[in-house]
UniProtKB/TrEMBL annotation:
The keyword Hydrolase does not apply. It comes from Sphaerimonospora thailandensis. InterPro entries: Uricase (IPR002042). Its EC number is 1.7.3.3. The active site is at K11 (charge relay system), T56 (charge relay system), H241 (charge relay system). This is Uricase. Keywords: Oxidoreductase, Purine metabolism. One of its GO terms (molecular function) is urate oxidase activity. O2 binds at T56, N239. Catalyzes the oxidation of uric acid to 5-hydroxyisourate, which is further processed to form (S)-allantoin. Belongs to the uricase family. Pathway: Purine metabolism; urate degradation; (S)-allantoin from urate: step 1/3. It comes from the Bacteria.
Length: 286
């Protein structure tokens, strides 16, 4: 005897670009939207009855139609709009999850229509709408930062395999992936995102680091201090190691000037910082 377990379906990675034109002053929104629906979908799996299935093709079309009808503002607003629509209009759909990535374009030159992609930083959000309410996790990834001093790593545990030497001055570099959960929705998602991003950067710059773990906690704590609407922050920080190169073979000193930037392996430091009274997360992180 077998039974159908949890299931969901949707259209992954619908790429939508909106160009808004005010004369020659154009504005670009560039998104990657993934919609995922679940609910009363037993029959499609067991008997092939598709009557409850809103095609993934329709979900894709809805993304484009809503971009035109409602415009694309903050990605959280767009994600909630789509999720509410699917749950509100399809009787069989009990739960909608909409995940969006946003790629940022900056102006290139003095005209209003030339753009350059702004590095590899990506803004992210995931919105859930179901019978128990609405939940939003916002975030970013690809935010690459480096401190060229004010970082130590010493006093660590050791065993017969330990070769790492203690350091009182090293480069600390990472590529921040952060996501944060909201206790309540802010009035302006863009402002909230800007403040959280600023808090991450400020804490990274200001913390005299004894380990990347300690820096992670400082970064998460700063977001919670600056953003009352946020109740939980999750961080994934690869430790982008920089090794001082031994130049003594060439009769040269190396006093913290020439480094080898290794790309792998890398330490991967991950952690969550949350308020003690954070409300129940529900499906927010799924
Ligand atoms: O900040 C660090 N945390 C670690 O856990 C670790 N482990 C390591 O080898 N280097 C570092 N650096």
């Amino acid at each position: 005897m077998v039974v159908l377990g949890p299931n969901r379906y949707g259209k992954a990675e619908t790429r939508v670009v909106q160009v808004t034109r005010h004369g020659d002053a154009h504005r670009v929104k560039d998104l990657n939207v993934s919609t995922t629906l679940s609910g009363d979908m037993t029959e499609v799996h067991l008997s092939g009855d598709n009557s409850a299935v809103l095609p993934t093709d329709t979900q894709k079309n809805t993304v484009y139609a809503f971009a035109k009808k409602h415009g694309i503002g903050a990605i959280e607003d767009f994600a909630l709009l789509l999720a509410r629509h699917f749950v509100g209009t399809q009787p069989a759909v009990r739960h909608a999850r909409v995940a969006i990535e946003e790629y940022t374009w900056e102006r290139n030159g003095s005209n209003g229509h030339s753009f350059v992609r702004a590095g590899r930083e990506t803004r992210t959000c995931v919105a859930h709408v179901d019978g128990s309410g609405e939940r939003v996790v916002s975030g970013l990834r690809g935010l690459v930062v480096m401190n060229t001093t004010n970082s130590e790593f010493r006093g660590f545990a050791s065993d017969e395999y330990t070769t790492l030497t203690e350091t009182r001055d090293r480069i600390l570099a990472t590529e921040v992936a952060a996501s944060w959960r909201h206790a309540y929705f802010p009035t302006y998602w863009d402002k909230s995102h800007e403040t959280a991003r600023w808090a991450l950067l400020a804490a990274f710059a200001d913390t005299y680091s004894l380990s990347l773990q300690q820096t992670l906690y400082a970064m998460g704590s700063r977001v919670l201090a600056e953003c009352p609407e946020i109740c939980e922050v999750r961080l994934s920080l690869p430790n982008k190691h920089h090794f001082e190169v031994d130049l003594s073979h060439f009769g040269l000193d190396n006093d913290g000037e020439i480094f080898f930037a290794a790309d792998r392996p890398y330490g991967l430091i991950e952690g969550t910082v949350l308020r003690e009274d954070a409300p129940d997360a529900g499906p927010a992180w799924e």
